[in-house]
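Worked example

This section walks through a single chain of length 68. The input is the sequence exactly as stored; nothing has been trimmed or padded.
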Amino acid sequence: MAENDEGKREPPEDESHRGVENAVLLGFFVVLVAAGIWLLGTMADVRKAQDCAGQGRRNCATIDVPAR
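Given that input, the structure is written out below as tokens.
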């Protein structure tokens, strides 16, 4: 380890940015999990619509009713 003028030791370069790297990896993991959850929800909605249409039903689209 290198010493500065006051005798304090500085951490090596590879250890000084470990916290930043961990935060970036955690953020990437959170985004990846959120994208997976969104994708699963979208796939479930498509499957429901395909099942409805496959049974020969009409008006299989989701109808959003505004709250009163």
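What to look for: The longest strand covers residues 2-3.
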